[in-house]
Design goal:
10 helices, alpha/beta, three-stranded parallel β-sheet, ten-stranded mixed β-sheet, membrane, disordered N terminus, Rossmann fold, D-Maltodextrin-Binding Protein, domain 2, Insect_Ionotropic_Sensory_Rcpt, glycoprotein, 17 strands, 2 domains
Length: about 475
């Protein structure tokens, strides 16, 4: 059994109601998720702040929670620069970020700047998790741990604050990629870092599917205050320019955003806002996360699919040339999926290519977390979207299904079965063949009797009731010529 210990001089901002959870390398993710779920059930909405850290030796994990009304911070002295950076972060978060699951990722949780952010965020957001990358040990255990923290199934929305002021960018992005951040494109991501790094950070592969990413560029003067807190600094003067003017200078704080399709369908950065702390504030009606999917600016989507008529159909066409030799061309035939993509591409302004999977399969699990066919193409980033494929519990962990087909219901209506007639009771015990045969014999007998009654050769005799009749003589029947 692992013993959970918090190292000094790190002090938690939560002073009471500690909850410790010990996990080994085999069930760390499952145990952490169970602890969080159990804590949510027992603690209620007022006790949902959680601190994650201290995985320095053997993957030890410490969970702490406290009621919002009882949160106390041991750091009463504010380091110069910390409060200003906190104000910048708070202006970006306040009234613009959903008050939902909040995760802070940093390389040094001992900094006063982080504790000041926790002080404000913990009083507003529903849940708070602090991940100290510097305390995590390399290995699959920590990767699964971060994946569990970021992707708790009970959360409907999440906000991620990434602190790059203390370094550790490569480790953070590696863990975020292992945690499959690309599966949550709607997550709000705020990155705090220094200038000249915004383009390289925002265009990193880990944010390839993120629609809401902001980079708060901190000037070197404020970063120097964080690095050397004992130095006396001159307070920055507020800006005298208006909000619509673009500021410049070493002390300008700039808020950048990631636009996935602004550069002719490719990622680029955009200037969101700029100001001098503690000068002008962000306008109240300011929206840092505009909708990026209404115009994708010619972005290329790779579509993969299998033949499943009438939903999707294609043929292969062989072509040969002297220079390129024999080539196979895939022709997407007219089908329901092709018509929908043609309509969507005009509405959302994107382009697309189509092709079948390399192995020609819909997708089965092949082990080691890998899938084949259509599912494998999406999993290994060889395609962006697939045509019709049946959902399953395993496939749902790789991609999300879109309900694009509207099926009309087909219902058969019939009368309620009635009681059989009592007049047919005598015939029910017999088989159908016997009933038909008896009916045929009865009808033939009636027909013969009817025909014979009209025959001209039928003997006629006037009979009187009570007297015996006799047959006529042979001559009277007109048969004498046969003698």
């Amino acid at each position: 059994m692992l013993e959970t210990v918090l190292e000094e001089p790190f002090q938690s901002p939560f002073s009471q109601n500690w909850l410790f959870a010990n996990h080994n390398s085999e069930n760390s993710s499952e145990g952490l998720q169970n602890s969080l779920v159990e804590h949510t059930k027992t603690g209620g909405s007022d006790e949902c702040e959680i601190l994650l850290g201290n995985c320095a030796s053997g993957g030890k994990v410490a969970l702490a929670h406290a009621s919002r009304s009882n949160v106390r911070f041991p750091h009463d002295v504010v380091i110069p620069g910390d409060l200003e950076v906190t104000n910048l972060v708070w202006q970006t978060l306040r009234e613009r970020i959903p008050k939902c699951h909040f995760v802070i990722v940093t390389a040094d949780a001992r900094k006063s700047f982080i504790l000041q952010v926790i002080r404000r965020v913990s009083l507003v957001f529903q849940s708070l998790i602090l991940v100290d990358i510097g305390k995590l040990v390399d290995g699959k255990q920590e990767t699964d741990l971060i994946s569990t923290v970021l992707g708790i199934s009970t959360t409907t929305c999440r906000t991620l604050l990434i602190d790059l002021t203390s370094g550790g960018q490569s480790d953070m992005f590696r863990l975020l990629e292992s945690a499959k951040l690309y599966l949550w494109p709607e997550s709000r991501i705020i990155i705090v870092g220094s200038k000249t790094h915004e383009e390289r950070v925002l265009k990193d592969h880990v944010f390839r599917n993120s629609l809401r990413v902001l980079f708060l560029s901190i000037p070197k003067s404020l970063l120097a205050r964080l690095a050397y807190p004992d130095t006396t600094w001159t307070k920055l003067k507020p800006s005298k320019t208006t909000n619509n003017e673009t500021l410049s200078g070493n002390d300008t704080v700039i808020l950048y955003g990631l636009c996935l399709f602004c550069d002719e369908g490719k990622p680029s950065i955009r200037l969101v806002f700029s100001w001098w702390p503690p000068g002008t504030a962000l306008p109240k009606l300011f929206d840092p996360f505009p909708d990026q999917l209404d115009n994708m600016r010619g972005h290329l989507l790779r579509v993969v699919g299998m033949t499943s008529f009438p939903y999707n159909d294609y043929i292969r066409e062989e072509k040969s040339s002297k220079t390129k030799g024999s080539q196979t061309k895939v022709i997407w035939l007219d089908s329901l999926d092709k018509r929908m993509y043609a309509l969507f591409s005009k509405k959302l302004n994107f382009t697309y290519t189509f092709g079948p999977p390399e192995d020609g399969q819909f997708g089965i699990y092949v082990g080691n977390g890998n899938w084949s066919g259509l599912v494998g193409e999406i999993q290994h980033n060889k395609a962006d979207i697939t045509t019709i494929v049946a959902p399953s519990s395993g496939r749902n962990q790789i991609f999300d299904h879109m309900r694009a087909y509207v099926a009309d219901p087909f219902t058969v209506v019939s009368l309620k079965p009635q009681l059989l007639s009592q007049y047919t009771l005598i015939l029910r015990p017999f088989t159908s063949a016997l009933t038909i045969l008896a009916d045929r014999m009865h009808s033939d007998d009636n027909w013969l009797h009817l025909v014979s009654s009209f025959s001209p050769d039928r003997p006629k005799e006037n009979l009187t009731c009570g007297h015996l009749g006799r047959y006529p003589e042979t001559d009277q029947l007109g048969m004498g010529h046969f003698r």
